[in-house]
Amino acid sequence: MPTADGELAIETRGLRKTYRSVRGRRVGVEGLDLQVPVGGVHGFLGPNGSGKTTTIRMLLGLVRPDRGTASIFGHDVPRHLPDVVGRVGAIVESPKFFPAFSARANLRLLADGIGAPRERVDAVIDQVGLSGRAKDRYRTYSLGMKQRLAIAATLLKDPDLLIFDEPTNGLDPAGIHEIRRTMRGLGDQGKTVLVSSHILAEVEQIADTVSIVARGRLVASGSVAELIGGQGGPAVRVGLAADDVAIATSLLTSRGLVVRREDDALLVDGADAATVNRMLGEQGVWAGELTVRRADLESVFLGLTQHEVPGGRDHRGGRRRRKEEARDTTSGAGAASGPGAAVASTTMGEDA
Ligand SMILES: Nc1ncnc2c1ncn2[C@@H]1O[C@H](COP(=O)(O)OP(=O)(O)OP(=O)(O)O)[C@@H](O)[C@H]1O
């Protein structure tokens, strides 16, 4: 999905990364072809363990790919990362700020460290809506405010591309809303925002385009509207008494409808609720529930990835724990600003 002039913010081709583990080699990313257009919010979606973080870390030069190529604004990375690093800001792990310092003091320190002008500090605090609390100590902030400060840190160098790896992890609905609004605002200002997530509803609301990955491979990409449109029309969920499920299935299929089982209910594709209700009622079968279900990104995602994750969507393995441990080893203020700082601050070791 290049822009009219063909430029892509991010492109990967055949990107592959495996990790050594006690049980042999584990695939992190397997031949990934990713295209992120310039400008707007791009959702990078996939179940836990599908390779999102590994991909992001390869883009930022934190993990070395086994094979394949990656580029940012047309510059090969990691080889030419220094040429483009100033245009990129990223949050890969939770950043560390000094708890007793205010947002402003933390960002001033960071600006000095990365060579960003100090005048940017108030501007970025304003950009993420923290002006009213800029003088308060970091330790008094809510999780959502801490995360917004992390985003502010990435903006110090006024980058063109922002990369956020699961930025709403651990936030409550209000915090998620704050971050979502901040990311959408950045997209509207013409920045390119790559946001990884396994929470579809939030990405659906703010993303212009998405890439869906499973087991390290791209399984779908395009605009949110295209992907949802490809799902066909709405489905009707029909809740039935257990004894009626089989008879309702044969009744509806004999009338040419496509019927799927979902728990104790049936999902009837592309039909309207009144028709389904009438067909069943005429034969003395009464639905206990009739719900129209419109296609959304979640149904696209589940359809493409549900067989890919052992243990379902909430599966969290040792990998998450490793990330938490790695987080504890980071140090220094503003650890998550541009890739330079990310490289310096994220100490999670590469197994391979
Ligand atoms: N440092 C590492 N050592 C060994 N295996 C790893 C390492 N990092 C990632 N993996 C493995 O690579 C695969 C992809 O993990 P990755 O963290 O990239 O996925 P993800 O999509 O970001 O997952 P999540 O949503 O849980 O963060 C997983 O099987 C994971 O266990």
SSE blueprint:
Elements: E1 8-21, E2 24-37, E3 40-45, H1 52-59, E4 67-72, E5 75-77, H2 81-84, E6 88-91, H3 103-114, H4 120-127, H5 143-155, E7 161-165, H6 173-188, E8 192-197, H7 200-206, E9 209-214, E10 217-223, H8 224-229, E11 235-239, H9 245-254, E12 258-262, E13 265-269, H10 273-282, E14 289-293, H11 297-305, H12 318-328, H13 339-345
Parallel strand pairs: 3-8, 3-9, 6-7, 7-8
Antiparallel strand pairs: 1-2, 1-4, 4-5, 9-10, 11-13, 11-14, 12-13
Residues 19, 21, 26, 28, 46, 48-54, 198, 319-320, 350-351 line the site of adenosine-5'-triphosphate (ATP).
Word description of this protein:
The protein is an alpha/beta fold and 352 residues long. The chain folds into two domains: 8-229 and 301-345, P-loop containing nucleotide triphosphate hydrolases (Rossmann fold, 3-Layer(aba) Sandwich), CATH 3.40.50.300; 235-294, Alpha-Beta Plaits (2-Layer Sandwich). Helix content is 34%, strand content 26%. The protein contains 13 helices and 14 strands. It has helices at 52-59, 81-84, 103-114, 120-127, 143-155, 173-188, 200-206, 224-229, 245-254, 273-282, 297-305, 318-328, 339-345, and strands at 8-21, 24-37, 40-45, 67-72, 75-77, 88-91, 161-165, 192-197, 209-214, 217-223, 235-239, 258-262, 265-269, 289-293. The strands form three sheets. It has a six-stranded mixed beta sheet, with helices on both faces. Strands 2-1-4-5 form a four-stranded antiparallel beta sheet. It has a four-stranded antiparallel beta sheet with strand order 12-13-11-14, with helices on one face. Bound molecules: adenosine-5'-triphosphate. Adenosine-5'-triphosphate binds next to strand 1, strand 2, helix 1 and helix 12. Adenosine-5'-triphosphate is lined by residues 19, 21, 26, 28, 46, 48-54, 198, 319-320, 350-351.
